[in-house]
Write a structure and sequence with these properties.
The complex is a heterodimer of chains A (about 140) and B (about 280). Chain A is mainly alpha-helical and about 140 residues long. Chain A has four helices and no strands. Chain B is built from eleven helices and two strands; from the N terminus they run ααααααββααααα. The chains are: A mainly alpha (about 140), B mainly alpha (about 280).
Chain lengths: ~140, ~280
């Protein structure tokens, strides 16, 4: 490792930089794959939705809130099974939201391998907050 | 307007927003909500839900490219995410009960502040700052590749930065944006993290932060598939195109144009919010 250039400076704590780096590359690839996958699912849903509803009027002036088939996990599941385009779009968006959450979950493993238990704790806290937001807001019902 | 026309127009506008956002580094999400509410007459709650989804897409899509450069610091990111995700949860819950005119007013103020900030010079790169005991104990200090080899840096004022990031998360959850402006305050100015490290690290954080509030928005029925679809696909395609054609020479004038757009949209949102036209 090249730290000699600034040896007069305070030497910061560097926990196995190559492992950090490798972990980051794995996490970056995971994020990209998740986004492309969710983009593909959204696009597929868009085709079905536009094929069926292209000539209906679009109106988003008044906020009504989505029906449960588009805002709960069981609802989205059933609308996908029934071949609904908008259900497929919501599934893609759900995958998109799950992507950074999967990144956080994988980071727990990464910090665990490095035996950095302080950061395992921090990451578990972040994951708990994310899961609370996902499951505590009525999405699971 | 038919659904087909609406979808195509929203996708084009989102593409341009994503392209300009990534070329200028100012983020596309911040202009989407005002564009959707002012020109497409979309209720601000639907607009925020769709924008939030596009923020996750751009952040995650750009991550692989940023990671290769080796500037990001996952410890700083993970530690500050505790603050931003808690803030985002709070912001999303506040958004469900405060009047939309208040949301629009706050949005206008944030846009004006972003326009102001985009015209400011970057804070000077830190050199030889003494190690801060809190940052050292939390292992936040690191190094990044520079022209002269690895350059190390010492993170400063951790509690101030952490509190500001809580605010950044709350704004992100309330307005459906990436909150780049507050991030600059917290990471660049308070914590004195080098510019390249803070930019790439915050890109990682933006996706996680937006995911924390997106769950609440989806569960509350604020994310409409017909609207979120063209916004997400458009912004994602635009920002991915932007990272490929990044030409350094032209970004200065582009940045000026984009900050004027942000300023004008900010004034419009402020007007609409204060006079209750939303």
């Amino acid at each position: 490792m090249k730290a000699g250039a600034h040896s007069h400076q305070f030497e910061p704590f560097k926990p196995q930089p190559w492992r950090d780096r490798r972990l980051e590359i794995i996490l970056g690839t995971l994020l990209r794959t998740g986004v492309l996958l969710s983009g593909a699912v959204v696009l597929a849903g868009a085709c079905i939705y536009l094929f069926r509803h292209a000539h209906e009027p679009a109106d988003y002036r008044i906020f009504r809130g989505e029906p449960s088939e588009f805002r709960t996990i069981p609802g989205i599941y059933w609308s996908v099974v029934n071949g609904r385009g908008r259900g497929l779009i919501q599934l893609g968006l759900l995958l998109l939201i799950a992507t950074p959450i999967a990144r956080v979950a994988l980071s727990i493993v990464g910090f665990g391998i490095e035996r950095d238990y302080l950061y395992v704790t921090f990451t578990v806290i972040v994951l708990a907050i994310l899961l609370y937001s996902l499951l505590g807001s009525g999405l699971a019902l | 307007m038919t659904i087909l026309t609406f979808t195509v127009l929203v996708a084009i506008v989102s593409f341009v927003a994503g392209l300009l956002g990534s070329l200028t580094g100012l983020g596309g999400g911040v202009v989407l909500v005002p564009l959707l509410t002012i020109f497409f007459h979309v209720d601000i709650r639907y607009a925020i839900g769709a924008s939030l989804v596009s923020v996750i897409a751009t952040s995650s899509g750009a991550a692989a490219a940023y990671v290769k450069e080796g500037f990001s610091n996952i410890r700083i990111g993970m530690f500050l995410e505790i603050a931003t995700t808690l803030g985002a949860l709070l912001g999303a819950f506040i958004a469900t009960w405060i009047p939309t005119s208040v949301i629009a007013t706050i949005f206008g103020a944030v846009l004006l502040y972003s326009a102001y900030l985009s015209r400011q010079a970057r804070p000077l790169a830190q050199r030889n700052l003494p190690p801060d005991p809190v940052a050292t104990r939390l292992r936040l200090n690191g190094s990044f590749p520079d022209l002269e080899g690895q350059r190390s840096y010492n993170v400063q004022h951790v509690p101030t930065g952490f509190s500001l990031m809580f605010g950044a998360g709350a704004l992100s959850g309330l307005l459906g944006i990436g909150s780049g402006a507050v991030k600059v305050l917290a990471m660049d100015q308070a914590m004195r993290i080098p510019f390249k490290v803070s930019t790439t690290t915050s890109n990682f954080m933006i996706g996680v932060t937006a995911a924390a509030s997106a769950g609440v928005y989806l569960g509350r029925g604020y994310i409409d598939p017909g609207l979120a679809m063209p916004v997400m696909l458009g912004v994602l395609a635009g920002s991915l195109t932007g990272t490929r054609i990044l030409v350094k020479a032209q970004t200065t004038s582009l940045r000026l144009v984009f900050s004027i757009v942000i300023l004008v949209l900010g004034l419009q949102m402020l007007y609409k919010g204060l006079w209750g036209h939303i």
